[in-house]
Amino acid sequence: MPERIEVRLPDDVRLHVETSGPADAEVTAVLLHGWTLDGRSWHRQLAALRETYPTVRVVSYDARGHGRSSCMTLPTATLAQLGDDLAAVLDAVAPAGRVVLVGHSMGGMTIMEYAHRHPDHFARRTAGLVFVSTTAEGHTHTVYGLSPRIARIIRLAETTGAGVLARCGSWRPPQALLRALRPSIRWMLFGERCDPVDIRLVTSAVAHASLRSIGGFRASIGTQHRLATLAALAHLPAAALVGDRDRLTPPPCAESIAAALPATELTVCPGAGHMLMMERPEEVNAALSGVLRRVLDASPAHRC
């Protein structure tokens, strides 16, 4: 069973963190979830990692304002702050050894921000990268699977609504409202197939995100541009995955990441949407395993 701990950040935000595997492991895999979700979204990957790589330390946590972590002040609802939080979590729960960072959507953007804001820390620690349904170009390619004109209208409504939600503090979305919105959530996040268990999990995660975090992070998610940061990481083993029905981070997002990291293994999953770790767990697990294996093969202990 994973160990559940609390990491207190300098601004008194408390992060819910789950760890498993040896505390002195040579390699640690850290899984970062997407916007409005929580660490449970990785449950299929966490189970596979714990079974297949018992010597690897596995870490997942709920970002500030999400899941079982505490809420925060509105000015700290930014990707920049999430990058700082990642550095703090690594120092607290995996202070030694090399790290493979795995990010979905906002989690992938968090990794890029960590690399941008803490380049020395990143260089000392990071040995591999896995990007799942994410982007380095904000909302540049996001058209929700619709015409550009309609997409602009939706984006305007979305950003306006996000500004309103951001001022609602630590309140959580009403469960009844989320149940009514399940068809919309399913359309936005999933592709051709969706297990009812997964849509219930996603709805539960959204219900645990504060309205401040749901609205507050939208601005920096839409404006972040980190392709230049990625280009400096081309030496690392990496993988990028995307669904060809992803309405939030469509294939051009993953393609630009792969172009910035030429050695990246790019996987496009037919018929899949934004929630690849749930929709296509085998493909995500295989990509993660491929990066982990390359990192482990390069370790001094393995070479001996």
Give a quick summary of the entry:
This protein is α/β, with parallel strands linked by helices. The protein contains 15 helices and 8 strands.
Task: Label this structure with key terms.
304 residues, alpha/beta, Rossmann fold, eight-stranded mixed sheet, 15 helices, 16% strand, globular, Alpha/beta hydrolase, AB_hydrolase_fold, hydrolase activity, Epox_hydrolase-like
Mean pLDDT score, rounded? 91
Q: What's the count of strands?
A: 8
Widest sheet, order of strands: 1-2-4-3-5-6-7-8
CA distance, first residue to last residue: 30 Å
CATH top level label = Alpha Beta
CATH 4th-level superfamily: Alpha/Beta hydrolase fold, catalytic domain
Q: Treating each run of at least 4 consecutive H or I residues as one helix, how many helices?
A: 15
Strand content: 15-25%
Query: Remind me, CATH topology?
Result: Rossmann fold
Organism: Micromonospora zingiberis
Domain AB hydrolase-1: 30-287
Keywords: Hydrolase
GO molecular function: hydrolase activity
Plain-language structure description:
- Residues 30-287 form the AB hydrolase-1 domain.
- Pfam families: Abhydrolase_6 (PF12697).
- Keywords: Hydrolase.
- By secondary structure, the protein is α/β, with parallel strands linked by helices.
- The protein has a single domain (3-303), classed as 3-Layer(aba) Sandwich (Rossmann fold).
- It is 47% helix and 16% strand.
- The chain has helices spanning 43-52, 79-93, 106-117, 119-125, 148-166, 175-180, 182-189, 196-208, 211-216, 218-223, 227-231, 251-260, 276-279, 281-297, 300-303, and strands at residues 3-8, 14-20, 27-32, 57-61, 98-104, 126-132, 238-243, 265-269.
- β3, α1 and β4 (57-61) form a beta-alpha-beta unit.
- α1 crosses α14 (281-297), α2 crosses α3 and α3 (106-117) crosses α4.
- The longest helix has 19 residues, at 148-166.
- The mean pLDDT is 91.
